[in-house]
Design a protein that fits this description.
By secondary structure, the chain is α+β, with helices and mostly antiparallel strands. The protein is built from 10 helices and 19 strands. The longest helix has about 35 residues.
Length: about 350
């Protein structure tokens, strides 16, 4: 039984719209049941979404029993003919009762059709979403319904379903950059209570941790500060990653390329605090951060300078403020040429 290879990235809505999934729910067979049970055992974190999708489709089964437009038109014509016949001269007492009875049945039929169509309309509407936008300048702190904290960088935007239910899968959609401090799932709660972040082409699964996500047109980056998270990619579903603290992953959209390395995670979330205190951070570590964040090629004049350390408060509102702070704190000369930065000591 062939199935798409990207079910691992599906949301509840994706399952509902999938033809193979619909066929399995509406017309189950042994082969389909075996395939889906095996798949769910391999992807237990998707079980709640699968069950929600199955329940939704099951509620819509009655739609198949609704009469089509021709049948409704035929029924109305039949009722009208009965009313017309009832209006012909008959005994006075019987005429009044017959006409009233036929009108009552016609009105009841119309009311039932109206109720059914109204229920269908509300059931098939997409879920309402809550959208929160970051400030034009500065950092916005947001508390989610589960008490998790998200800090949105300037211009970022997050959204989640308005009917966020306790114990359900927690899903967030992110545009821009944000730092997540996730409240862990209560002890004993099944995996369906995971926290899932959708950012560009990257899917992040986490149970309780803190991490930074930067989504842009060219690339999406994820840096893990504490805990453990699982990354998967919509275009590379066979390549999931488990990240440990200090891991950095960058996914480049155009080339479908993934870069993974170890970094100083404090640097990659330095923007979220008005002034972040750093301890013994080398110039080389800061150079890596500049490359990953602002897409420069950074060249330091010599190895001794690259090992020079910076300790103290660092305020990073943007690229210009970062370079100015570095230049002053470490007595550096920084030159920008096209997409490269050249760093050397001011004494040279």
């Amino acid at each position: 039984m062939e199935q798409p290879i990207n079910y691992a990235t599906y949301t509840t809505n994706d399952f509902i719209a999938d033809d193979a999934f619909l066929k399995w729910v509406r017309h189950p067979d042994a082969a389909g049941d075996a395939w889906w049970q095996e798949w769910l055992e391999a992807h237990p974190h998707k079980r709640q979404q699968v069950e929600d999708a199955r329940a939704f489709i099951s509620r819509l089964q009655f739609e198949e029993q609704l009469p089509d437009e021709d049948a409704i038109a035929l029924s109305l014509a039949h009722n009208l003919s009965l009313i017309e016949a009832a209006e012909r001269p008959v005994l006075p007492g019987k005429q009044v009762r017959s006409v009233r009875k036929l009108f009552w049945w016609a009105a009841a039929a119309a009311a039932i059709v109206g109720v059914v169509l109204s229920v269908m309309y509300f059931l098939i509407q997409p879920p309402a979403m809550t959208i929160i936008k970051g400030y034009a300048v500065g950092v916005r702190t947001v508390q989610l319904p589960d008490s998790s904290i998200v800090r949105l960088n300037a211009g970022a935007e997050l959204s989640f379903r308005s009917n966020w239910a306790p114990g359900a899968n927690r899903e967030i959609w992110l545009q821009g950059e944000a730092f997540f401090d996730i409240k862990p799932s209560p002890a004993g709660v099944r995996a369906a209570n995971e926290f899932v972040v959708h950012s560009g082409n990257v899917l992040i699964n986490v149970l309780g941790t803190s991490f930074n996500v930067r989504e842009g047109a060219a690339a999406t980056t994820v840096t893990l500060n504490t805990g453990k998270i699982k990354l998967s990619f919509k275009d590379l579903p066979e390549t999931p990653f488990i990240l440990n603290p200090g891991d950095f992953v960058q996914y480049r959209t155009a080339s479908n390329k993934i870069i993974r390395k170890k970094v100083n995670p404090t640097l990659y979330a330095v923007w979220k605090e008005e002034r972040q205190y750093l301890e013994r951070v080398t110039l080389q570590e800061i150079a890596y951060y500049i490359e990953d964040t602002y897409n420069y090629h950074v060249k330091i004049s010599d190895a001794r300078l690259a090992k020079q350390q910076l300790s103290g408060g660092l305020q990073v509102k943007d690229e210009a403020s970062l370079l100015e702070t570095l230049s002053f704190a470490l007595n550096l000369k920084i030159e920008r040429k096209a997409d490269s930065l050249f760093i050397q000591s001011s004494n040279q």
